Structure to design on (376 residues):
């Protein structure tokens, strides 16, 4: 028997607790979350919740009974404020403390804020409730940031019939993550749906409601104060262990051994499963293929792998059909990533190909007569 404490009751924290029980862990599990709500999913906040298509009741991963049935002690509205690594103890703001054998840091990230007042942000359930109310009464909306969150909020605001202007500092949308062909496709989609998109600008347009989606900052302060190594996130090795082997860090707050800090449901959930497996069955390196999705208007973009501007981008299908994929190859013509627009089949094949390191040439990727499934 051993005791596991999980700090952060978001996607990664919840999944760690659930997976530990699924793997047969019979020690105690304490899940500490500073938010007052049952652990819930964030993706609908900028999509269905904002546009009114999805209710708040649908957000929790599991009802309260799940935690009781699985002997998971859920401490909500409780903030962890310190870690005593020698005593293996986590201090809470309520002045109590809890002891652990394994500690999992799943503290997530918080929004980066602009140095101006009157701007709204979207990270948690309470933000979404407030933003939705403000959207309903706003005559016009300005959005700062042409990344996933900004574009999803734009899409939801248009679904509510609001005039929307979106400004992006760079010369294209989602520039950090997708090839120019995908950026320009989404630019056209948003323009056709009535969003005024202004590139190369940081000037906030006049509007009744201003929303910014300009990135996040990892919540690393607890780890830093405990003397763990921290850079852009809490530094972890190939096994998701911090510089203290009794402490794992996962999800948005963790910087992986390859130097990347990913912000996605897949990353949080798969890292959580890996940590649960390791606590129960022993060390095993984390090796999942990253993937991500975003919904904007009637378009679903699914991304597998990690693309880079230095990759060669090969188009499969046509942007005019609103169903296409972009295959990214590195210098050695090795498949590195695939973005799929309204082509879920390509996305599923891509995930399998990336996991199996299936040989695929750029010519095959671009030729729609080649059956990709047949290459697996
Ligand atoms: P979080 O879910 O942020 O959870 C961390 C929790 O820890 C928070 O509840 C925080 O309050 C708590 N916490 C922090 N410090 C402490 C402390 N000291 N004590 C106690 N509790 C603490 N990803 C996708 O793949 N697809 C999408 O379409 C998508 N859409 C998104 C839309 C929105 C609006 C947002 C905000 C995110 C979206 N994401 C999406 C990203 C995805 O939700 C995150 O990557 C994921 O939630 C990360 O999980 P996490 O557990 O690491 O962090």
């Amino acid at each position: 028997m051993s005791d596991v404490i999980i700090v952060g009751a978001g996607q990664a924290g919840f999944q760690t607790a659930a997976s530990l029980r699924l793997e047969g862990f019979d020690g105690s599990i304490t899940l500490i979350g500073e938010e007052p709500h049952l652990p819930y999913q964030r993706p609908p906040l900028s999509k269905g919740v904002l546009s009114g298509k999805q209710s708040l009741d649908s957000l929790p991963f599991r009802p309260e009974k799940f935690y009781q049935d699985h002997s998971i002690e859920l401490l909500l509205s409780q903030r962890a404020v310190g870690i005593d690594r020698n005593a293996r103890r986590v201090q809470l703001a309520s002045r109590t403390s809890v002891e652990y054998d394994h500690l999992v840091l799943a503290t997530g990230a918080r929004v980066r804020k602009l140095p101006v007042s009157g701007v709204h942000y979207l990270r948690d359930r309470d933000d979404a409730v407030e933003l939705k109310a403000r959207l309903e009464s706003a005559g016009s909306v300005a959005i700062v940031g042409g990344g996933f969150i900004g574009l999803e909020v734009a899409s939801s605001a248009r679904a509510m019939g609001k005039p929307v202007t979106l400004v992006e500092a760079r010369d294209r949308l989602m520039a950090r993550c997708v090839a120019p062909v995908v950026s320009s496709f989404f630019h056209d989609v948003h323009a056709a749906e009535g969003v005024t998109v202004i590139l190369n600008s940081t000037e906030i347009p006049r509007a009744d409601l201003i929303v910014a989606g300009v990135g996040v900052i990892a919540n690393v302060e607890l780890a830093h104060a405990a003397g763990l190594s921290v850079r852009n996130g809490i530094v972890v090795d190939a096994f998701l262990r911090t510089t203290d082997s009794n402490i794992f860090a996962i999800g948005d707050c963790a910087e992986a051994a390859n130097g990347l800090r990913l912000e996605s449901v897949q990353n949080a959930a798969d890292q959580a499963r890996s940590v649960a497996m390791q606590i129960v069955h022993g060390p095993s390196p984390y090796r999942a293929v990253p993937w991500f999705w975003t919904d904007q208007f009637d378009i679903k973009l699914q991304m597998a792998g990690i693309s880079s501007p230095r990759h060669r981008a090969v188009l499969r299908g046509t942007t005019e059909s609103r169903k296409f994929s972009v295959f990214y190859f590195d210098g050695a013509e090795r498949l590195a990533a695939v973005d799929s627009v309204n082509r879920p089949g390509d996305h599923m094949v891509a995930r399998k190909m990336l996991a199996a390191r299936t040989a695929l040439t750029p010519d095959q990727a671009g030729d729609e007569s080649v059956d990709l499934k047949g290459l697996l």
